[in-house]
């Protein structure tokens, strides 16, 4: 999570930036991450916003936030039916912009971490969902989850799952809150069909990233 919001403002045509930016290079579930959403403002105007969200979806009906640690990913195959996600997939879709993410390959010598990033540079956009949960102090917690799908292309050599990537045009379609509920299933299908694993490049990184207490740009450096 080392993307400066200023670098996203023009590309995404952001109207409001309220993401609390702190560069991080080792981001576990439960951390705060940026999400791109479209919401009506107090005057009823649709605005595109970069907001801060807790990674791990907490639906409005949850008794506490612990449920979020089980919902940092949402399987695209079942997202339309699962009670945890079926309301947010209809009304609260977002994009999660990241410079890259880690994935672990199981090898004979243990788990080997890889750094996945956008081929050609720039951010990766992941399809996500978001929710609001009223906290005991009556303030609202915004939380998010990332959609996943069966891995394809060279990414399946590392892991059997991968995030649902959004190309720049798909970001606009995915976060559009005006999509009727009846059109959400074909939207999901269309979004999945556009995912291109060749848009992602990868390199091996050191195993110190496996400890969340380690945090610094050196974690993303290639290793032999």
TrEMBL record:
InterPro entries: SRAP, SRAP-like. GO terms for biological process: protein-DNA covalent cross-linking repair; proteolysis. GO terms for molecular function: lyase activity; peptidase activity; single-stranded DNA binding. Pfam families: SRAP (PF02586). Keywords: Covalent protein-DNA linkage, DNA damage, DNA-binding, Hydrolase, Lyase, Protease. It comes from the Bacteria. It is an enzyme of class 3 (hydrolase). Belongs to the SOS response-associated peptidase family. This is Abasic site processing protein.
